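Bench notes, afternoon.
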Amino acid sequence: MDRKIFNRVFLAFEHYSYIVVGILLIFTIGIIFFSSMGDIYHAFQDGDLIHGALTMVDRMLLVIMAIEILYTVRVSLQANGLNAEPFLVVGLIASIRRILLISVDGAYNLEKFRNHMIEIGVLGVLIFIFVISIIKLRREKRIDYCNIPNEQN
């Protein structure tokens, strides 16, 4: 077989795989969003407003992370390659989400205070690294992956 035929088959497989992953991510986002509404409702119904608010923030940040991963899949599909910035943004959101959870847990669990402070310190350094990396990537003016024309070779 010709090399171009192999290339087209693999490219088509890659594109369809991204499409399937994107569809599964959309379903996942919907499931997380709607199941979190029930959890939030039950937390507020039980009168635990702090737990309800924490659950709401936690789940919405999880939805934002999944949306950012979906964006990464879309950009990868358009550009026929990976872009590091969306992964850094997902890591940034995950780190912030964890700090929020530790902060609330620390208010109720003083025995783990020292461990929580160490973890928050490590996450703070990680957030700093993520932000510096994102700024550096943007300053280098890499290829704009959203505006690459789709080549069919």
